[in-house]
């Protein structure tokens, strides 16, 4: 019997061609009204779901899939996957760790350089035929102090890169890591006080919600730069906008926002903000590797049944 799989989020291009022959695939309509009717029709037969870390597995969707056994998600964040519901229902959740670490760390470095060296502002000037007109100087990155909030896989890959820029490195997370030579701070405020660049790369979800708030911005100070490649929910966004407008911090490089894909006008209007659309892992190489993981995770889960069908 065919195994029914729901495609619930945008996936790398190598995913669907590999699965079409093995499974019966159903694309979830984007329009809410259409999705409701569609789920009433096919929801009862769905056993696997493909999604991505940003789209996640909303509670309402999960409740329309009573026979769901596995969620295969592209990405490493699980904050949008409703892990507690999945666990309670015995649904296996598989992500794509390991393959995106290096590119996200590169993405953080790109945002650090783009903000400190005013690259986007400079580029806008050239395109507008203004060359150097009214373009303030940038600031050096080499030798400045880097604070990493979340020294996990990506945080450590970032630290390695920052060492090449002669940056003293410090970090905060719940547990001190005895295997790294970097200075540990037991709070985000203390880390921010000791940083010129504060890079956020902790998971999202309730435990880190608004962890980077007004107190952190004031500790980072008027020459400090915030870069967020983790999750928008970790930063108090209205307070960040106020801090940027008031010059309480120098600049921000944001790959992730609180309510993606909504971008507040206030952020768009600020010259000292560099924005990218949750794009830190957005290279062809990484996305194809993530796609392969998504495929392999699903094939592995249904391996026995698929062999029987071959
Ligand atoms: P890891 O699990 O390897 O590292 C996460 C780190 O965060 C750990 O060192 C952990 O340390 C720390 N941490 C977790 N919870 C807290 C907390 N409540 N307070 C303080 N520190 C905490 O994950 P990765 O490095 O692979 O990825 C990190 C996150 O990056 C992902 O969860 C995802 O949200 C985001 N991401 C963003 C991408 C993008 O495109 N922008 C792409 C990929 C990932 P400890 O347990 O000691 O607290």
From TrEMBL:
The coiled-coil segments of this chain are none
Key words of the record: NAD, NADP, Oxidoreductase
* UniProt KW Oxidoreductase keyword: yes
Q: What is this protein called?
A: Lactate dehydrogenase
Alphabetically, the GO molecular function entries are: glyoxylate reductase (NADPH) activity; hydroxypyruvate reductase [NAD(P)H] activity; NAD binding
Q: Tell me the ranges covered by the D-isomer specific 2-hydroxyacid dehydrogenase NAD-binding domain, including all copies.
A: 109-280
Q: Where is the D-isomer specific 2-hydroxyacid dehydrogenase catalytic domain?
A: 6-304
Q: What InterPro entries has UniProt attached to this entry? A: D-isomer_2-hydroxyacid_DH (IPR050223), D-isomer_2_OHA_DH_cat_dom (IPR006139), D-isomer_DH_NAD-bd (IPR006140), NAD(P)-bd_dom_sf (IPR036291)
Record-stated family: Belongs to the D-isomer specific 2-hydroxyacid dehydrogenase family.
One CC-aspect GO term: cytosol
């Amino acid at each position: 019997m065919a195994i029914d799989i729901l495609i619930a989020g945008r996936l790398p291009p190598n995913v669907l061609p590999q699965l079409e022959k093995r499974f019966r695939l159903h694309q979830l309509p984007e329009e809410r009204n259409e999705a409701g009717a569609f789920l009433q029709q096919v929801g009862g037969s769905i056993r696997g779901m493909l999604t991505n870390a940003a789209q996640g597995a909303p509670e309402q969707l999960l409740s329309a899939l009573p026979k769901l056994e596995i969620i295969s998600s592209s990405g490493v964040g699980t904050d949008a996957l409703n892990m507690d519901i999945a666990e309670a229902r015995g649904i296996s959740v598989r992500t794509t760790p390991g393959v995106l670490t290096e590119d996200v760390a590169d993405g953080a470095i790109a945002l650090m350089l783009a903000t400190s060296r005013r690259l986007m502002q400079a580029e806008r000037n050239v395109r507008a035929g203004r060359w150097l007109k009214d373009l303030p100087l940038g600031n050096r990155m080499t030798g400045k102090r880097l604070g990493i909030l979340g020294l996990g896989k990506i945080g450590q890959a970032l630290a390695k890169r920052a060492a090449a820029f002669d940056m003293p490195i410090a970090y905060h997370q719940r547990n001190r890591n005895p295997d790294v030579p970097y200075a540990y701070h037991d709070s985000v405020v203390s880390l921010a006080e000791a940083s010129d660049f504060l890079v956020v790369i902790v998971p999202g979800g309730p435990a880190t919600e608004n962890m980077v708030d007004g107190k952190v911005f004031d500790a980072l100070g008027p020459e400090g730069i915030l870069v967020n490649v983790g999750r928008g929910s970790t930063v108090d966004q209205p307070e960040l906008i106020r801090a940027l407008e008031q010059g309480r911090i120098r600049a921000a490089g944001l790959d992730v926002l609180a309510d993606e894909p909504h971008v507040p006008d206030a952020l768009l209007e600020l010259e000292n903000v560099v924005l990218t659309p949750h794009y830190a892992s957005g290279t062809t190489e990484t996305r194809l590797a993530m796609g392969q993981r998504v495929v392999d995770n699903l094939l592995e889960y249904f391996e026995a049944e698929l062999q029987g069908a071959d």
